[in-house]
């Protein structure tokens, strides 16, 4: 069966349902514009750090104690994963990959690491500006490749690397919180945060201020609350935003200002935009034919092609793990004990309850979310160079299917377009949605 | 006699019916067997609880992978695949407990796949600290070892007393000393003891009680020390990259055809601690925890904020008087492939030639490997 229609309108303000709306939309495009402003500001901060004399931290998208960094007024935070994906989106990733391969990095090494290595060898030139060298590195250990990456920086820049080691507690997680194991892990994490404080004090010449930390944590709690409200818009049928495309804007904006107060107005503007869509009946897609869940990131070098694979079938991604993993829905900082609660958050991320958890123990969450969001199926995108995200994905598919959730399996890479075989992917996508269409609309047992 | 022992070790490491473990179990019907995935666990704690620790290091190129391939993506290394296959086939059903170590992103996923699919045994994770220099690192590890001890006590039904643990540490200290002596022979007179034989003897040691292994080591050591063999005109190399996934023995032999492998990173479970764990006037469990950091040099899967691992790697090459290095990370191994570059850069700075050559445990043809190593060795022997 052919795809029903091709839909190529922009993702927002795509269609107005009902046909009798006279009010002009006022807030549409707010998320897209907001993230643009925030990313520009973020890059200005990076590019101008030498002139402004600002201290620079390298950190990762998995929460890297951003609130603690900002409490020391370390506001310039480089996120090399995001910087790498930006290079790929600009379609110049291959130049950086080739440079790192010339230096000896294998085809099978994480593509983000390789783009960053290539960039270091190209005088830190990034399409959006120049990335400054770090004054310190914050390295959570939820992904082991982070550690290898930090070792490369240590070798190159010789700056302090603050590991925030997060013990993996996925066996019997229900009895973990409050157990003696948890107590020992918390002491370990507190020690690491105290080490970090010592280094931050030395680098900035400022004393640790618990109230300032609590202030940043309070702001992040507000962000988390707003985030939940935003996420919930998509429980509606039809859904209000495209968790994949709109989600990229949301995520881009939040990443650019992690842990800072700027995230709050940004979140509010998203909420305003979505609320207006509800009121005016604006939907991201004319006909919501399939409500899908996507796990995890696309191939950034072929972003448009990746998206178009699904557009042909009027697929709306109503939930995306990539978009959702930035804000922890169930965890809030306890402001009465700012440092300890930060330690607790770092430990929480390595339990199966956390949306930050990269590994295939998210299975339980996925099944629950499919129910909550009335999902028709799950797209699993296995990423060759990210074994954290994708190492368990095939087994995950087996269990999703056993749970009765139709699952489409695709594989390529985060950034390396050499692994993106569009024709092969299209075949899989078309076959899957043909079958799902029969099942959903014609009651076939496919 | 000793040749027969070594031959027996070679057979043992390729026999995935785990005959020595089964024999132990027959002799100790109440005894518990605890499996562990690479790289290192404190074997002493398991031993002191009267249980038998057994390394589960995949099944190399001996068992055809069928079921596990349907659960793992194509772009990950081989050892989780062949380990999972053993689990799916029920070939590890003799294990009472299985311990995994989140040494890399693949290993972390493997635990979860294991927990979902291989349910006939108790599975747990030992989380060794990646941060060795934090103020709480050793206390944390001590707690983690206490947790492991309680876990093993529960599995075995036997309490571990400090005396029993000290006794176990003494035994493993002896085992480590003998292994260090074997490596001294390899560094000084490599023609007396091949790397392939050393590998077989070490790996066999992870499949039997330590007491039995000590006897084997003593016998091999005595034999090698007295052995009358002639030195050949081969270059001296360090082989690096086999810290987790196991190289086929034919791979090691292929390198040895043209080189003396004077040091390597085989079976780090028995070599992580490079000296005796101190027992004088200190709680043995705490001492074991402290030794994890203090007696460790470097490994691709362990971060060490104290010093760059390339520096420790170079030290090993110098101590072994290596003329060259074979950097051989397993295919798809992120830690090995990342470190390969840092090591290569250090070797470049030092002027030590090296050959980069990935391996895979399930490889079955070695001709190309021989050709590569031969060309490399000849280029050094004749043109350097």
Which tags fit this structure?
heterodimer; A: 446 residues; alpha/beta; four-stranded parallel beta sheet; 18 helices; 12 strands; disordered N terminus; B: 384 residues; 14 helices; 8 strands; 49% helix; globular
Task: Please give a structural write-up.
The complex is a heterodimer of chains A (446) and B (384). Chain A is an alpha/beta fold. Chain A contains 18 helices and twelve strands. Chain A has a four-stranded parallel beta sheet, with helices on both faces. In chain A, strand 6 (136-140), helix 7 and strand 7 (161-164) form a beta-alpha-beta unit. In chain A, helix 5 (93-102) packs across helix 6 (111-120) and helix 8 (180-204) crosses helix 14. Chain B is of the alpha/beta class. Chain B has helices at 2-13, 19-27, 43-48, 79-88, 105-117, 137-156, 162-188, 195-205, 210-226, 249-256, 284-294, 309-319, 334-350, 367-383, and strands at residues 33-36, 52-55, 97-100, 122-125, 235-240, 259-263, 324-327, 354-356. The longest helix of chain B has 27 residues, at 162-188. The N and C termini of chain B lie far apart (41 Å). The mean pLDDT of chain B is 96. The chains are: A alpha/beta (446), B alpha/beta (384). At the A-B interface, helix 7, strand 7, helix 8, helix 16 and helix 17 of A face helix 5, strand 4, helix 6 and helix 13 of B.
Q: What is the helix tally of chain B?
A: 14
Please, what is the average pLDDT of chain A? 92
Most residues in contact, chain pair and counts: A-B, 60 and 60 residues
- Quaternary structure: heterodimer
Strand content of chain A: 5-15%
Tally of extended strands of chain B? Answer: 8
The rough form of chain B would be described as globular
Low-confidence blocks of residues of chain B: none
Order of helices and strands of chain B: HHEHEHEHEHHHHEHEHHEHEH
Q: Helix fraction of chain A?
A: 40-55%
Q: Which strands sit side by side, in order, in the main sheet of chain A?
A: 3-2-6-7
Span of the ends, CA to CA of chain B: 41 Å
N/C terminus separation of chain A: 14 Å
Shape of chain A: globular
């Amino acid at each position: 069966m052919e795809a029903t229609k091709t839909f190529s309108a922009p993702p927002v303000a795509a269609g107005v349902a009902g046909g009798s709306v006279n009010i002009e939309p006022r807030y549409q495009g707010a998320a897209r514009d907001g993230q643009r402003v925030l990313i520009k500001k973020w890059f200005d901060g990076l590019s101008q750090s030498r002139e402004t004399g600002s201290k620079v931290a390298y950190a990762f998208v998995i929460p890297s104690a951003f609130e603690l960094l900002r409490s020391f007024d370390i506001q310039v935070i480089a996120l090399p994963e995001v910087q790498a994906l930006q290079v790929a989106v600009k379609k110049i990733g291959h130049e950086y990959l080739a440079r790192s391969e010339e230096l000896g990095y294998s085809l099978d090494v994480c593509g983000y690491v390789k783009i960053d290595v290539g960039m270091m060898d190209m005088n830190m030139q990034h399409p959006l500006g120049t990335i400054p060298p770090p004054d310190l590195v914050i390295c959570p250990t939820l992904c082991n490749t982070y550690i290898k990456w930090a070792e490369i920086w240590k070798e190159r820049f010789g700056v302090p690397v603050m590991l925030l080691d997060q013990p993996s507690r996925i066996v019997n997680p229900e009895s973990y919180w409050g157990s003696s194991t948890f107590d020992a892990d918390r002491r370990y994490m507190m020690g690491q945060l105290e080490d970090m404080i010592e280094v931050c004090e030395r680098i900035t010449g400022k004393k640790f201020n618990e109230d300032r930390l609590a202030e940043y944590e309070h702001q992040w709690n507000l962000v988390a609350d707003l985030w939940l409200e935003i996420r919930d818009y998509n429980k509606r049928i039809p859904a209000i935003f495209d968790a994949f495309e709109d989600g990229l804007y949301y995520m881009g904006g939040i990443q650019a200002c992690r842990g800072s107060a700027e995230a709050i107005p940004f979140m509010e503007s998203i909420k305003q935009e979505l609320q207006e869509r509800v009121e005016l009946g604006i939907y991201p897609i004319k006909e919501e034919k399939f409500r899908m869940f996507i796990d995890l990131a696309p191939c950034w070098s072929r972003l448009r092609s990746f998206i178009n694979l699904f557009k042909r079938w009027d697929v709306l991604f109503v939930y995306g793990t990539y978009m959702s993993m930035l804000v922890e829905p169930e965890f809030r900082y306890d402001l009465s004990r700012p440092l300890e609660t930060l330690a607790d958050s770092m430990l929480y991320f390595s339990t199966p309850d956390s949306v930050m958890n990269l590994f295939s123990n998210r299975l339980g969450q996925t099944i629950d979310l499919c129910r909550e969001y009335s999902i028709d199926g799950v797209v699993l995108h296995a990423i060759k160079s990210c074994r954290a995200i994708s190492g368990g994905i095939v087994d995950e598919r087996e269990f999703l299917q056993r749970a009765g959730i139709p699952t489409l399996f695709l594989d390529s890479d985060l950034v390396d377009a050499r692994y993106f075989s569009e024709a092969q992917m299209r075949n899989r996508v078309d076959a899957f949605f043909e079958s799902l269409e029969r099942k959903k609309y014609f009651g076939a047992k496919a | 006699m000793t040749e027969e022992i070594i031959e027996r070790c070679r057979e043992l490491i390729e026999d995935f019916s785990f005959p020595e473990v089964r024999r132990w179990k027959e002799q100790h019907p109440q005894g518990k067997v605890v499996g562990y995935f690479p790289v290192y666990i404190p074997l002493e704690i398991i031993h002191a609880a009267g249980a038998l620790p057994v390394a589960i290091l995949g099944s190399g190129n001996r068992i055809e992978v069928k079921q596990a391939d349907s659960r793992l993506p194509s772009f990950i290394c081989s050892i989780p695949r062949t380990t999972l296959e053993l689990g799916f086939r029920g070939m590890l059903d003799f294990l009472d407990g299985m311990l995994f170590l989140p040494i890399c992103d693949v290993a972390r996923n493997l635990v979860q796949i294991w927990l979902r699919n291989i349910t006939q045994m108790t599975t747990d994770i030992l989380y060794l600290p990646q941060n060795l220099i934090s103020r709480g690192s050793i206390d944390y590890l001590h707690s983690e070892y206490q947790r492991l001890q309680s876990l093993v006590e529960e599995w075995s039904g036997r309490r571990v007393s400090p005396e029993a643990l000290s006794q176990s540490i003494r035994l493993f200290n002896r085992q480590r000393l003998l292994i260090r002596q074997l490596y001294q022979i390899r560094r000084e007179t490599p023609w007396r003891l091949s790397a392939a034989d050393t590998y077989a003897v070490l790996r066999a040691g992870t499949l039997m009680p330590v007491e039995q292994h000590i006897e084997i080591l003593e016998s091999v050591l005595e034999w090698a020390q007295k052995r009358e063999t002639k030195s050949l005109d081969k270059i001296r190399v360090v082989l690096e990259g086999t810290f987790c996934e196991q190289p086929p023995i034919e791979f090691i032999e292929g390198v040895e055809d043209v080189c003396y492998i004077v040091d390597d990173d085989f079976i780090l479970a028995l070599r992580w601690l490079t000296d005796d764990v101190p027992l004088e006037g200190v709680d043995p469990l705490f001492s074991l925890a402290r030794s994890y950091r203090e007696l460790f040099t470097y490994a691709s899967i362990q971060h060490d904020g104290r010093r760059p691992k390339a520096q420790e790697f170079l030290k090993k090459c110098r101590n072994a008087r290596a003329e060259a290095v074979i950097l051989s990370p397993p295919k798809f191994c992120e830690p090995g492939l990342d470190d390969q570059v840092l090591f290569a850069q250090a070797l470049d700075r030092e002027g030590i030639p090296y050959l980069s050559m990935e391996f895979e445990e399930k490889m079955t043809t070695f001709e190309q490997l021989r050709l590569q190593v031969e060309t490399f060795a000849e280029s050094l022997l004749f043109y350097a």
